[in-house]
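Re: that chain you flagged

S.,

Sorry for the slow reply, it's been a week of failed gels. I finally had a moment to sit down with the sequence you sent. For the record, here it is as I used it:
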Amino acid sequence: MLKLKIHKDLLECGTDEAGRGCLAGPVTAAAVILPDDFHHPWLTDSKQLSEKKRNELRPIIESEAISFAVAHVMMEEIDQVNILNASILGMHRAIESLTMTPEFIAIDGNRFKPFQKIPYECVVKGDGKFLHIAAASILAKTYRDEFMTSLDNEYPDYHWKKNKGYPTQEHRAAIKRIGPSPYHRKSFRLIPEQLKLEF
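Prediction finished late last night. Pasting the structure tokens below so you have them in one place:
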């Protein structure tokens, strides 16, 4: 049973990201403030849910949340600042875009950088422990998946509709065959024989 939040008396947002381990596309972060009476029987870590369930939960979260925001950090920035910093940057941007300033931030994972002197806590596997982090994980995942599916029309050879930019065998084989796209992260090891790739 997931808990609502860490501090029951504070206006608290949960934040999470999706796409850290991908070879292509943005890392996407979301921040969510849920009402104190929020409950939904399905809501848990997005990785535990089917794509259908995630897509059904997204409009419920969006309509019932006090505030939510989503931010993409694109490949060029990931390559400049590295994926960990890009993930934290995405979370900062999502929190900054909320319609109200939270009094406390709950983060999925074990790394974060202070945001506007707001107290925070990192929670390992937080998306399986707290509802607001789980809600953020679902928004981050569904918005990112939607973005990668839209890119699939432009670059069908990489099968992003299916793999969403993750390093599947099929994805790596396509990179080896036709080279990287403008949406690939140049700082990532795209195929084992990285040195054979020309950018």
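What I noticed first: The two ends are 48 Å apart (CA to CA).

Talk soon,
D.
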